[in-house]
Write a structure and sequence with these properties.
By secondary structure, this protein is of the alpha+beta class. Helices cover 28% and strands 31% of the residues. The strands form two sheets. A six-stranded antiparallel beta sheet has the order 1-2-3-10-5-8. A four-stranded antiparallel beta sheet has the order 4-9-6-7, with no helix packed on it.
Amino acid sequence: MVETAAALRTVAYNVRAARTRAGLSLEELGRRAQVSKGALVALEKAQGNPNLATLVRLADTLGISVSALMQGPPEGRVRVVAADAVAPLWTGERGSEARLMLTTSGPAPVEVWRWRLEPDEEYPSHPHQAGVVETVSVTSGRMTLIVDGTEHTLGAGQTATFDGDASHTYRGSGAGPCDLIMTVHLPPAP
């Protein structure tokens, strides 16, 4: 619980700082990101429980990565993150989950995600800003990647990449769970 409260305080600080840097009012950020002003006020006060879709919309609107909203100050040259040290940002009703493991630094950051998709459970992703490229690598099981309405089935050992500004969905499609690593390549900051 203490870790969750600390993470929420970090998100609150980072959202407020990014909004201020962008010169956006709460109303304008809410309008552009399709998030209510009340939810933004609560978030900036480190209250509430923002879901993954909300964080993605805020990050895209602010022109930063989801992990930039969640990261505290850098810890050193090498950062090691264990999967069980990172809380899921999305949990499905059947046990699927998505964990943002880390984001690389530099002018064009890369987010590294660890996903588990249970059979027939899906996550419809909000299209990202132009220039975002996603890559999914299935390590076990099977999944269906749906991009612009076209289905692509991927099995263990297969990797796919696509432009993230298109409508896309991830679905577990085997008899058992599908584990995958997803990277989100962000465009260089303006």
